[in-house]
Each structure stands twice: as C-alpha cells, then as structure tokens.
Specification:
14 helices, five-stranded parallel sheet, binds adenosine-5'-triphosphate, Arc Repressor Mutant, subunit A, Helicase, Ruva Protein, domain 3, Rossmann fold, two-stranded antiparallel sheet, single chain, binds magnesium ion, alpha/beta, 330 residues, 12% strand
C-alpha cells in the first residue's frame, strides 16, 4: 500500500491537494507547510515532490530541530577537507545530494537567526558554499520547510527572521488540525484498520458506531498520528472482530483538563483585550461560566450545533465533547 496516500475528503484537504498539485509544477517556489504535530505536513511535502516532474530525483529530509547548529550547517552546505577538527574528507551537503529534487527542512523554526540568514542567502542566490570552501556551487533543489509553531509569533518574539519568512511564505500551506475536519475521521479510521490489518496480519472487520462516536468527540491533540496509533493499539488488543469503545485508549479527562486551562487562558486574554480584566478576589466558576456561554450560543443558534460551534469559534467535534462533559442537552 502507498504509504504517502493522503486520505480525506473534507473541503480543507481537497483544497490542499489542489495547492500541492499547483506547487508541484513550480519547483522554483519555496514552500512553507504549517500545522500542528501529526497533521500530515511531511506527507504533503512528499506529495508535492511526487507530483513534480523531478519526482525521480531525490527527496531528502532533515529535522532541523534535532541537530546541533554547527552540524546542521555542515550537513546542509557540506564542507571541505580540514574545514574543522574532524573534517577528514570533503563532504557534500544535502542541498547538493538533493540536487534536482526536493529538500525538506522540518522544524525550521528551531534554527538560530544566524543559520536563518545563511539559509536565506542560499535560497536567494541558489548557490551554496562548502564550509571552509571558496568556490560556490549552484543548486536547483526545491525547498520545502515545515513548522508546527506559528512563525508570525516567532517573528514577534525575535526568534525568526522576517525576510526568510517572506521568502518561504510564497507557497504557503496550512494543514488544519484533525478536530477541524471531522468529516475525514471515519475515512482515516477505515484506512488505518485496513493498513494495520495487513501489517499485523489481523482481520478486524471494522469499528462499532459507539467507538466511532467516541473518536469523533475526542479533540486529538496529536492529530492523525495519534489517531493512527490509537487504531493500531485497538487492533492489537481486540480479540474479536470489531473495535469496541473499550479498546480505545483516549484520556478524555486529561484532555479536558488541558483544554480547560487553555480556555481559561484565552478567555482571560480576551477579557484583557476588551477591558483590563480585574479578576474578582472571590474567583470565578469557570465551568459555570463556560456552560453559560455555550448555552447562550446554542440559544442564539436555535439549537443548531454547527452554527453554535461557529459562534464559539470551535469545531463541532469540540462542541459536542464539551456538551457531553458539561452535561448540556442541546
Ligand atoms: N491525511 C492523511 N492520510 C493518511 N495518513 C495520514 C494523513 N495525515 C497524516 N497521516 C499519517 O500520520 C502520521 C503523521 O504524519 P506526518 O509525519 O506527515 O505529520 P507531521 O505534520 O509531519 O508531524 P510532525 O509535526 O510531528 O512532524 C504519518 O504516519 C502519516 O502517514
Ligand atoms: Mg513531520
């Protein structure tokens, strides 16, 4: 089975597949793929490469966050013999190794400003120089970068160069979190049941509606990767034919605590924006507050879940989860 198949029929995924197709035919455009952990950024990078005319040339990926800075530079740009202690031979950089193909710079936001300026220069001039070298080597490698943090915020904090951002941003794609494309969940579940059945030589027939409901209500902080592992685990422990709710290892409690903290933080921020919020000394009942807000959104939306979710700026799945948690009957 094709490991790079992108499953999903939501309008968001179809839109991204279209963009990927267009970007594939313009190798000179640098691409920036944003999205939370496990949303499928690498999958889209590989798709762009596969759809391009240079698909037979290498696709080289490097996780910029996992390598110390000095090493990262020599990995990407290469070095001459004797450039530094330990450089016993000339070594080509990944830009050259990926020549004519694609280089995928994962976790671009964790690089230093100094490295970013070198990268910008390479991208703009389409030339690189080995560390310790004199001559420049021209490169025609497509560059795709990915990040799971918001680069605007990183720029504001002074951790990311604005000029590099604008350069990378030309072909920008944002892969939405799984909780914002509930329509894809069932397809993904079926897909992972099929692939896991093959991989582990099992013959699970499918998933019980109740279990699927649980999956749809879960907010999936680890996105598609977490869903995949959850199905994998369910298939390994389920001894009968169908995945049951009990096979799913989903910590709703923990998630709800995390989300509550997030909501509390963001409501305080919102209050701060509207008026300097003076927190009452007797405290506030967050759950009651949340319940009240959700109920009034439901009222305003005449009970329509999608509309209420839109008013609250959360996904339907998230709203359903909160309704269940707070015991609200819509
Ligand atoms: N739409 C999809 N269809 C099928 N599989 C998917 C899809 N999206 C993600 N996956 C699978 O989920 C896992 C995570 O995807 P991927 O590595 O592309 O995510 P990522 O955004 O790069 O994650 P990270 O931020 O952690 O690097 C992979 O096993 C991938 O095959
Ligand atoms: Mg990745």
């Amino acid at each position: 089975m094709d490991q790079t198949e992108i499953i999903g029929h939501s309008s968001k995924i179809r839109h991204l597949l279209n963009i990927a197709k267009k970007l594939a035919s313009s190798p000179e455009i640098t691409v920036l793929i944003e999205g939370e952990n496990g949303t499928g950024k690498e999958l889209f990078a590989r798709r762009i490469h596969q759809l391009s005319q240079t698909a037979d040339n290498p696709f080289v990926d490097i996780n910029c966050g996992a390598i110390p800075e000095s090493l990262l530079e020599s990995e990407l740009f290469g070095h001459e013999k004797g450039a530094f202690t330990g450089a016993t031979d000339m070594k080509k950089g990944l830009f050259e190794i990926a020549e004519g193909g694609t280089i995928f710079l994962d976790e671009i936001a964790s690089t230093s400003l100094n490295f970013q300026s070198k990268l910008l220069k390479a991208v703009e001039n389409k030339r690189i120089r080995h560390i310790g070298g004199i001559q420049e080597v021209s490169i025609s490698t497509r560059i795709i970068a990915a990040t799971n943090i918001n680069l605007y915020e990183a720029i504001k904090r002074g951790q990311f160069r604005e000029d590099l951002f604008y350069r990378l941003n030309i072909g920008r794609m944002t892969v939405p979190p799984l909780r914002e494309r509930e329509e894809d969940i069932e397809l993904l579940v079926e897909h992972f049941i099929e692939t896991c059945n093959q991989e582990y030589n099992r013959s699970i027939k499918g998933i019980r509606p109740k279990a699927l409901e649980r999956i749809k209500a879960y907010p999936w902080p680890g996105n598609v990767r977490q869903l995949k592992h959850t199905i994998e685990r369910a298939i390994l422990i389920e001894s009968e034919d169908w995945i049951e709710p009990d096979d799913l290892d989903l910590d709703f409690e923990l998630e709800s605590m995390m989300r509550e903290a997030e909501v509390a933080m963001s409501s305080i921020k919102q209050f701060e924006n509207i008026q300097q919020f003076d927190f009452p000394t007797q405290g506030i009942a967050l759950e009651e507050l949340e319940k009240g807000i959700i109920e009034s959104a439901l009222n305003k939306a005449s009970g329509n879940l999608s509309e209420a979710a839109r008013l609250l700026k959360i996904s339907r799945g998230k709203l359903r989860y909160r309704l269940e948690k707070l015991g609200i009957h819509s």
